Amino acid sequence: KLKDNCYACAPDYTGSVLYGNLNDLPEKVKCFIQDKAKQCQPEYIHICDGTEKERDLLLYLLQKDGTIKPLNKYENCWLARTDPDDVARVESKTFICTTNKTDTIPNTKDDVVSTLGNWMSPSDMDCLLESRFPGCMKGRTMFVIPFSMGPIGSKFSKIGIQLTDSAYVVVSMRIMSRIGTSVLESLGNDDFIKCLHSVGKPVTSVQKADRWPCNPKQTVIAHYPERHEICSFGSGYGGNSLLGKKCMALRIGSILARKERWFAEHMLIMGIENPAGVKKYFAAAFPSACGKTNLAMMEPSLPGYKVTCVGDDIAWMRFDENGQLRAINPEAGFFGVAPGTSKKTNPNAMKTIEKNTIFTNVASTDDGGFYWQGLDKTNQDNIQITSWMGIKNWQHGSGTDPAHPNSRFCAPANQCPNIDENWESSEGVSIEAIIFGGRRPEGLPLVFESFDWTHGVFLGASLKSETTAAAEYKGKLVVHDPFAMRPFFGYNFGHYLKHWLSFQANRKLNCPKIFHVNWFRKGPEGFLWPGFGENIRVLDWIFRRVQGEDCHVMSPVGYIPRPGSLNMAGLKQEVDMNALFELPVQFWRAEVDELEHYFNSQVGSDLPDKIKQELNQLKQRIYNM
Ligand code: SAT
Ligand code: MN
User: Fold this and answer.
1) Total Cβ atoms within 10 A of residue 190
2) In a 3-state reduction of DSSP, which class is residue 45?
3) Atom of ligand 1 minimally distant from the CA of 242
């Protein structure tokens, strides 16, 4: 039933509120909606309450218009197939818009193209958006999603209001964050992060609803830190459209974090309990599609150890009154990469996604199941597979992928069998180690420890990884991804480094130890380390280092395990420890020279002296090798 009368205060707006009541909303929220509705001209407005009933209604509508189809083998599971041109984040079209360019990207020589963020002036971006948003929701419903990143009411948490014309976004945001009426109650008349999203495809009277509406040519994702505003146009894909995630929790989040002296990081949070019953929490930063979800949900191969998952992608961390670093996972779900996920590699993920999950761009089987590369083979040979591109009767060895390499599952965190008992704690969990890692086929040892916090910050700054399918890149190339945040920095990376470094000076703070791991080193026969559940052997060493055990020796790059100190008990396969920890001189000379070039050209005059000193010290150690 339509409630037309709610729009009395916006006389030049003709849409009607289909669901919810505008007059129940806080004044600031109401103004925001009116303002944007006037611009985007949706046919209807739907104010999300976050209930299951609402979810079911939206799933029904999405199914009816062909955006999703049920995967009947499981309970309440759905498959969405996107436009093949809308499958990943688009970094080249993602901008931070600040008055001063140097607030966003480092101060470098004029001819250097920054790889540490895209900047545009707010007025130029306003012009660009002015050619996109007016009338963009014609014929569509504008959904209003009040959402909280972090448990509602926690002092860590931040509230946003996302307006979107995609019901897929609503049902996904409902999984990935806390949404609905309770968020509005917690917000009151406070300020919030204003988020506007449109798929950029108005529906004209003759047109039927598209299967996956989007507008790839016009896609732009804009962040206005000074106005606490995010505007995303043209893409329905998660990383571009679920604005609470990368846009708010990382880009805007990192800006708020610097101002309020905390951290918003691209990190998983995991708990580890050793056989003696001692439990510690670690945070770990790896670039997109490098195994954060697998690590956080790991089933440890060493007997007596227990791993629990607090989060798999984003950590918000701050020091408490006692100087202890504490972290929350601002999200409420997992938006994980599907290919490669199997009972063998990640049994907990497989159990998590059995129900209430939205899959995007995976393949389906004709008995209502999902399928992707790396999944345990279907046991019946006569089951037909339909690829993510809709190719029926997809065959192994056909030369095409069944699922898109960046295809995703979107599942509620509370369904994860190893979810940590404190995962929703409003005080957060205490973090005792920070781990950086990337895909490094060459040169980087399995694990090493920084000499101190400043050296650890240098390790984060020096992080590199092989590219993956999470963004628009083609081919494998080792690229810089400092702190695994390169696509997600909300502000000048030089200032970000200063922020991190500033904590060392404060003696009241208990700065955790910082480590670097590399599960991906290769030898002539492929990966040197078995990975997955065996990674507990490395985490166990880190755990013991955090406890102060003397199980380390000095190396030019950091402390490495004393020979024999990694627990290898019961490891079934042969592992070449020498190859895993070797530091090839030629490789490292080239590495430090390249790092120096990178810092000079990309961070320029914003590079903190302390990082320069760390680099020089590393260089000396390497050249003395
Ligand atoms: O595509 S997302 O940004 O949502 C996930 C990722 O790349 O880490
Ligand atoms: Mn991520």
Assistant:
1) 9
2) strand
3) 4
Query: Is 598 marked active-site?
Result: no
> Known catalytic residue: 408?
yes
Q: Is the dihedral of CA 116, 117, 122, 123 positive or negative?
A: positive
Q: How far is the CA of 483 from the centre of ligand 2 (A)?
A: 12
Q: At what angle do helices 453-461 and 493-501 cross, to 10 degrees?
A: 160
| Token reading at 273 | 């309990």
Q: Is the ipTM of this complex over 0.85?
A: yes
As for ligand 1, residues whose beta carbon falls within 6 Å of it are: 89, 238-239, 245-246, 288, 335, 470
Q: What is the atom index within ligand 1 of the atom nearest the CA of 239?
A: 4
CA angle 355, 358, 360 (to 5 degrees): 140
- Dihedral angle of Cα 107, 108, 113, 115, to the nearest 10 degrees: -60
Q: How many residues can be counted in the chain?
A: 625
10-residue averages of pLDDT along the chain (625 residues): 38 70 94 96 96 97 94 98 97 98 94 93 98 96 98 96 98 98 97 98 74 94 98 98 98 98 98 98 94 97 98 98 98 97 96 98 97 80 91 92 96 98 98 97 98 98 89 81 98 98 92 98 96 97 98 98 97 95 98 98 97 98 95
Q: Is 246 a catalytic residue?
A: yes
